[in-house]
Amino acid sequence: MRRALTIAVLAGLLLVGGCGVRPSGMITVASAPVEAQVMTDDQVLSEIDPNVREIYLLFRGKVTPVVRLLGRVDDATLLRVLLVGPTQDERSAGLSTALPPSASLVSAERTEQGVVVTVANGGMPLGRPAEQQIACTLMAPDHTEVMVFLYELGTQSRLLACEY
Q1: Which residues fall within 8 angstroms of residue 82, CB to CB, at 6 or more apart?
Q2: Quick check: 79 and 54 in contact, CB under 8 A?
């Protein structure tokens, strides 16, 4: 009985596996929604091309990676690009930023412990979405966990994490 059941299962698998349907390439029926267009195959490109970088903006309130062709830039330059916010095309696609226009970068330095970022914002602490944008942008170059320490002038320093 057990042998007959095993043979029946194997025969069924062979029938299903050899049904004659051949794999084909991807067929595009309609354009993808904006969520899918924000990160495309460029995400893979960013991992092999050091000129392509990711900054993290907001889409519907959630941090979202956005690919930018920036060349080889340091952390400070990357954060300055982030502080500028979305381009007009990105805004039209629904992207935004939680970083206030009053925020300015004082410094960004990589140490053995992580990245130490100092931001001036008139003594007002940045909100959680803005902190997420900073942390995820700094972790994006090699997609590894790095400690990001945020010092805001006039407020307490804190450790950030990317929860993307």
Answers
A1: 55, 56, 97, 99, 133, 134, 137
A2: no
List of residues 6+ apart from 103 with CB closer than 8 A = 83, 119, 120, 121, 126, 130
pTM for the whole structure: 0.69
CB-count burial class (<10 Å; 0-12, 13-18, 19+) for 116 = middle
Task: Please check the confidence at residue 20 and state whether its pLDDT lies above 60.
Answer: no
Indicate the range of 32-46, 73-87, 114-128 predicted with least confidence. Answer: 32-46
Q: What is the percentage of the chain residues whose pLDDT exceeds 70?
A: 66
| Cα 59 to Cα 64: distance, rounded to the nearest angstrom | 6
Question: Which tokens in the block code for residue 79?
Answer: 């954060």
What Å distances lie between residue 89 and 40, 66, 95, 97, CA to CA?
16, 12, 9, 14
| Mean pLDDT within 81-97 | 95
Crossing angle of helices 75-84 and 128-139, rounded to 10°: 140
CA pair distance 106, 117, nearest whole angstrom:
8
